[in-house]
Design goal:
By secondary structure, the chain is of the alpha/beta class. It folds into two domains: 21-296, Rossmann fold, CATH 3.40.50; 307-376. The chain contains eleven helices and twelve strands. The strands form two sheets. Strands 2, 4, 5, 6, 7, 8, 9, 10, 11 and 12 form a ten-stranded mixed β-sheet that branches. α3 links the parallel β6 (119-128) and β7 (149-155). α4 (160-180) crosses α5 (192-205), α9 (307-331) crosses α10 (338-355) and α10 (338-355) runs antiparallel to α11 (365-376).
Length: 380
């Protein structure tokens, strides 16, 4: 709650003897809470009989069910090339000034599942400016998606301790919706860099010995305790898919935060500054991105039979685009071979027609795959 107007001479603290517990109810859908789980939308308290410790354990590996099927986002680069599978944990690596907030808003607004199961989104916002929180809230209300969202927000001027609680509170809610009520839950957590910095701040105040870049030595295990709460459980209908978003300090993918995150999660979606400066939106760098579980939720019965083949061909062609562009900077485009000129053209068309999408352009999986097939004709 902060320390404003507190006089240490007449203030006492009392230990309750138990960890923080979150009140849980189906009525949480459509509501907005602070980072500790208290309602802040003016709609009153949640009447709940269930209260659970927010420090839940990661899923027992023996109880895990292998992720299957996919979550549709309407974003071609994601659905076509790095498909998100239910129960997966896949982060978005961004950088300062890039439009990851707009991408997160679009994913939350457009995401759905194709087989009619109950679907919900839990959104944890950490260390955000007030304007950013309002951007999300207004978007959810105006686009009619707030009813399927539970939002937990911690602002930049809120307590660092609350910031550390936020992802755990959000995941406790997600676990209730998924494993008690049978929802397919997408959990979006942003910004994990703000979370890590709050963890470093508290660790420093406690006098703990710092590790890389001043972060505590247990940063890896702390991240794992959050990310490993995604998944599917044998005998339970629901699932938790997790998309943590983080900003890489100085765009350094080897920084401890993205580095440790990459060891735990199952792929990554990387936003590229060069694409952003070209006006490509969303600026997803497909050559640095991948979904390690993609193969298990695409193809016949899930998306389309030719999905994997088209995806592999796109990656191969776009990697050759980079070689052709490098050669063009030395020789000039006019002196390139005919095949290299085709790859240059393919790169331009791919970035402008496939990667680039209007803010409210929600492409079906068939539209995405048909566009991939059409673009490949340029180099075939």
């Amino acid at each position: 709650k902060g320390t404003d107007d507190i006089n240490i001479k007449n203030v006492q603290t009392e230990f309750l003897g138990e960890p923080l517990k979150l009140k849980l109810s189906p009525l949480m859908l459509g509501r907005i809470f602070d980072g500790a789980g208290n309602p802040i939308d003016g709609l009153g308290e949640i009447n709940a009989r269930i209260k659970r410790d927010i420090n839940s354990n990661p899923i027992n590996p023996i109880a895990r069910k292998y992720p299957r099927n996919y979550i549709h986002t309407g974003i071609s680069a994601i659905d076509g090339l790095m498909t998100i599978i239910r129960g997966q944990k896949i982060p978005i690596f961004s950088g300062s000034g890039l439009n990851h907030n707009e991408l997160a808003e679009r994913i939350i607004r457009q995401s759905n599942i194709t087989d009619g199961d109950k679907f919900a989104i839990v959104f944890g916002l950490m260390g955000a400016e007030f304007e950013t929180a309002e951007f999300y809230r207004k978007s959810f209300e105006e686009n009619g998606v707030l009813s399927k969202v539970v939002m937990f927000q911690n602002l930049s001027n809120d307590a660092s301790v609350e910031r550390i609680l936020t992802p755990k509170v959000a995941l406790t809610c997600a676990e209730y919706l998924a494993y008690d009520l049978g929802y397919q839950v997408l959990t979006v957590l942003t910004d994990m860099t703000s979370y890590a910095e709050a963890l470093r701040e508290v660790s420093t105040l406690k006098g703990e010995i710092p590790s890389r870049k001043g972060y505590p030595g247990y940063l890896y295990s702390d991240f794992a305790s959050i990310y490993e709460r995604a998944g599917m459980i044998e005998g339970r209908e629901g699932s938790i898919t997790q998309i943590p978003i983080l900003t890489m300090p100085n765009d350094d993918i080897a920084h401890p935060i993205p580095d440790l995150t990459g060891y735990i999660t199952e792929g990554q979606i990387v936003l590229g500054r060069d694409l952003y400066q070209k006006g490509i939106n969303p600026p997803i760098d497909i050559l640095q991105s991948l979904s390690r579980l993609m193969k298990d939720g695409i193809g016949e019965g899930y998306t389309r039979k030719d999905h994997a083949e088209l995806s592999n061909k796109i990656f191969s062609a776009y990697s050759k685009v980079q070689d052709a562009r490098a050669l063009a900077t030395v020789l000039g485009e006019a002196d390139l071979s005919e095949i290299d000129k085709k790859y240059i053209k393919f790169g331009e068309e791919f970035e402008n027609k496939f990667l680039n999408q209007g803010t409210y352009e929600n492409r079906s999986i068939d539209e995405t795959l048909d566009l991939m097939k059409e673009l490949l004709k340029i180099v075939e």
